[in-house]
Amino acid sequence: xxxVIIGSGNAAAVLGRKFIAAGHDIxxxxxxxxxxxxxxxxxxxxxxxxxKSTINKNADVYLIAVTDDALEDVTDQLxxxxxxxxxxxxxxxxxxxxxxxxxxGVFYPLQSLRKDMTTLPDVPIFFDGNDAKTKNMLEQLAHSxxxxxxxxxxxxxxxxxxxAAVVISNFVNHLYSLAEDYCRKEGLDxxxxxxxxxxxxxxxxxxxxxQAQTGPAIRHDSETIQKHLELLKAHPQLKNIYVLLTESxxxxx
Length: 253
Fold this sequence. Notes:
Helix content is 46%, strand content 14%. With 253 residues, the protein is an alpha/beta fold. Helix 2 (34-43) links the parallel strand 2 and strand 3 (48-49).
């Protein structure tokens, strides 16, 4: 397929590389960040523009990969009649594109994407469209770049998935950050915890998180919990989260 990518950030860069690897042609990149668009265009032997009026009108698919709060501005005055256009946001309804084209949808990559990734990750894609043409084209595009899940998901389902994704990715990473800060202040090496992190995550491939739960909270080991809380007096933010999560784990058992 011939593709125009609108955006030049993390999602745009990684998805663009996936498209190229799958044999698609990125015929143009549009971005308000002219330097970033030019850099990606050079990498993909494509062209770039930072003017909506000069967006190429000959592509098969137009993919808007920008932040949620930038979507309204990007789509303002954008007209691509007869073309298939989709955005990549989980929490924004597809109808934000209804004035851009008769064929609009969503192409949501459920993955943490960074422009500086040295290898292309597996990217589950959740797609939606307002008509059969849009759904079929986006599904084909998704299967071409994803070895994992390709699932049709409406606005409500995607929003619920996004909540779960924030919990298991953003919130968990914040806990890693707090633990790293704790280790630094206590003279410990956070990297010594990496084998445990990898084992805990790997266990979930064959076991549900509830069954995999271990630790003093699920054992109701009050003596160990009190020792931990005593240590955490010097780390009030981590102590508050420790108490909250301990209570949550115990209530779930």
